[in-house]
Amino acid sequence: MHEKKFPSEVAELQLPDITASEKLGAQLAPCLAPGLVIYLQGDLGAGKTTLVRALLYSLGHQGPVKSPTYALVEVYVVSRLYLYHFDFYRFMSPEEFLDAGLGEYFRKDSICLVEWPDKAAGYVPPADLVLTLRLDDDGRGRVCVPEARSEEGQSCLTKLRSAWDAGVS
Ligand code: ADP
Ligand code: MG
Question: Which protein residues are within 6 Å of ligand 1, measured from CB?
């Protein structure tokens, strides 16, 4: 049954400038629930880390939000949430996910934000929500295509969609 319901199609979200991306990140923050796995897809420079940074600041994080390209994972405990921000760009093979012992971060009480999940395909747990980012047509802004892949992801996306439509900032 559920297989038929997901993935769900949702219209593209236009992000013409970095302020728009920061707003989307902030809108996503209150839609999060423990246990969510969110994939952030898109090429280098598509704006994945920008979105995560805005989300973390909105939750009250202070200080830098570094790209986890080298560390593989950055840990944030903020607003009573455990957030783990991953970036598997540098993986030479998906098995590195196991070698690095990263599976234990994916818990019922944690929220995992994953850049370059394809590099850990077959090992990284499945996403509840996928946000795919790309350059827009004039190459200056970005476009985000959200897609829910579970009930939990759909619940998060429904909330995000109404915040987006209401222009919450
Ligand atoms: P990624 O993590 O996908 O490699 P980043 O989040 O590091 O990408 O962003 C790369 C660059 O894109 C940064 O200079 C950032 O300021 C810029 N950027 C992010 N979102 C937007 C946007 N909506 N419009 C214009 N520039 C953006
Ligand atoms: Mg990045």
Answer: 15, 17-18, 20-21, 42, 44-50, 141-142
Q: What is the pLDDT of residues 26-79, one digit of tens each?
A: 999 999 999 999 999 999 999 999 999 999 999 999 999 999 988 999 999 999
Omega before residue 7 within 30° of 0, cis: yes
Half-sphere exposure (CA, 13 Å, Cβ side) for 61? 24
Q: Where are the beta strands (DSSP E) in the chain?
A: 13-15, 37-41, 73-78, 81-87, 110-115, 129-135, 142-148
Give the pLDDT confidence of 134-169 residue by residue, as tens digits.
999 999 999 999 999 999 999 999 999 999 999 988
Which residues surround the ion ligand 2 when the cut-off is CB under 5 Å?
48-49, 67
- Evaluate if pTM is beyond 0.85: yes
**Domains detected in the chain:** 13-166 (3.40.50.300)
